[in-house]
Design a protein that fits this description.
By secondary structure, the chain is mainly α. The protein has one domain (2-123). 77% of the residues lie in helices and 0% in strands. Helix 3 (28-44) packs antiparallel against helix 4 and helix 5 runs antiparallel to helix 6.
């Protein structure tokens, strides 16, 4: 997790990432669902983002909120794939690509990839 923290601080706020990590030790699903709610609110305000991503956010919120991380992961992957090329910061884009590949390969067994992606999306100007 320390390596992921180092990567996160390259493009975002360390405190936000630490808050997400702490959520892993509590009610993980709720913490992730709340993060997705914030992202969905931002996506709704952006005319460039298509409705498919907003719907994927809603699916992720529902599944994460019910504590079902495994079923919410495909929708999160869909969101990251859709947002990848809207990311303007080159380092953030590379880290987001790496987190996407990690989520696809490891799923929820390595939640640091999910946290890194959410942290980057939290910081990006959408």
């Amino acid at each position: 997790m320390e390596i992921t923290l180092s990567m996160a601080t390259m493009v975002s706020d360390e405190n936000h990432f630490v808050t997400l990590v702490r959520g892993l030790h509590g009610d993980t699903g709720t913490v992730l669902a709340q993060e997705m709610m914030r992202l969905r609110t931002r996506l709704n305000k952006n005319s460039v983002v298509n409705e498919t991503l907003v719907k994927a956010c809603t699916r992720t919120i529902e599944t994460f909120g019910n504590g079902n991380l495994h079923d919410g992961l495909p929708a999160l992957i869909e969101i990251v794939e859709g947002m990848l090329f809207l990311t303007e910061h080159p380092i953030a884009q590379k880290l987001l690509q790496g987190s996407l590949e990690g989520m696809q390969k490891w799923g929820i067994t390595h939640p640091e990839y999910m946290l890194l992606a959410l942290n980057i999306l939290h910081e990006e100007n959408l």
